[in-house]
Amino acid sequence: MFQGTCAGNSASPRGLIFQLTDLMTQLSVNVLDIGFGTGTLGRMIKANQDTFYWSVDGVDGFEPNCYNQTLFNDDIYRNVWHGLAQDIPQELFAGYDVICLPDVIEHLDRDTAIELVRYILTNMNDNARFFISTPLWFYPQDTIQEGDLEKHLIGVPVSSMMAMLPQMYSVNNPLIGGFIYGKVSLDYADMFSPVTNPAFSQEQGQAIARAINFDCTPGKVTRLQYE
Q1: Nearest to residue 76, comparing CAs of 66, 85, 84?
Q2: Nearest-angstrom CA–CA distance, 3 and 189
Q3: Do 43 and 108 contact (CB within 8 A), yes or no?
Q4: Residue of 8, 37, 43, 219 with fewest CB within 10 Å of its CB?
């Protein structure tokens, strides 16, 4: 029997997903919430009048999250799996319109994080969107309960995220960025380069942001166009 209580809240700018206005005219939208935790993103989607009809599936590596009876009672997630996103069959994975990785990547070791980002970009369909959020510095956080995967193992410089050419981005305090990518970002996946040094501070993250003219205004959505 699994042990532990549900966990997984963050300061992720999850509202960025509601900027995908073109999807709100579709009759059917399928979402995969990777590392869904306590179901915050799923609840946001179901509570929004423009997205309540979206179908949301969840996968999480912390087993107690997958037995959260409240999520089942409230009909938040259509399907829930315990395990890794990489274990979802490719043909099923390709059926999602939006793949979400909100404040998960920093809990993985560097090699696994790089592998997961490439896996998502490789296996999502040509019209899908990839939403990822993460602290843009090495945000210190440790394990709370055994097996909860809460410890932070990497920090991701904003220069790395921007080098993958996002369609849009937004930031919440304390310097936590959310980014939307399309399939074209697969060509730039090698630019994703996390930092393992815990000394990578918020001040350093902000300095990098200033150096590349990244807009850190909390809550502002910046849309990008490339030649």
Answers
A1: 66
A2: 37
A3: no
A4: 219
Q: What are phi and psi of 193, to 5 degrees?
A: -140, 85
Q: How far apart are CA 22 and CA 129, in angstroms?
A: 11
Question: Cα separations (Å) of 127 from 32, 89, 98?
Answer: 15, 18, 9
Contact status, residue 130 vs residue 16, Cβ threshold 8 Å: no
How far from 37 is each of 101, 102, 104, 177, CA to CA, in Å?
11, 10, 10, 19
Q: Report residue 13: phi and psi, to 5°.
A: -75, 65
Cβ atoms within 10 Å, residue 107: 21
Whether residue 2 is predicted with pLDDT greater than 50 in this model: the reply is no
The neighbour count for residue 43, using CB atoms within 10 Å, is 18
Classify residue 210 as exposed, middle or buried by CB count within 10 Å of its CB (0-12, 13-18, 19+).
exposed
Q: Kindly tell me the sign of the dihedral angle through the C-alpha atoms of 174, 207, 167, 112.
A: negative
Asked whether the CA dihedral 102, 23, 124, 88 is positive or negative, the reply is positive
